[in-house]
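1st attempt posting a full record on here, be nice pls
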Amino acid sequence: MQREFSRSQRVEQQIQRTLGELLLLEVKDPRVQGVSVSAVEVSRDLGVAQVWISLLDPDDDPEEALSGLRAASGFLRAQVGKRLGLRRVPELRFGRDTSIRRGSEISRLIDEARRRDSDG
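the predicted structure (as tokens):
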């Protein structure tokens, strides 16, 4: 059981690194510029990889970036398989990682509450 878990983790890290390189250097679609791969989670059977992305500019439209990624998914999947030498290449599913934005909002609320406490 532990061995399978570590293999999944290793594959997740390799996919994350490879996708990051591909998005930076090879995908020319302007919709995916400024996209960062924040995490990858693979299913137990390695059939599906959920790829979580964040945007460098939080004001950018995430749906446009996700659309660009879906359009490039065939190319990305083929490159991941080729570069990692996987027999079975997981289907790539993209989603937006909102943890950075949520973290910023929580920090802002905490700062605001501290300011109110010190003023009152």
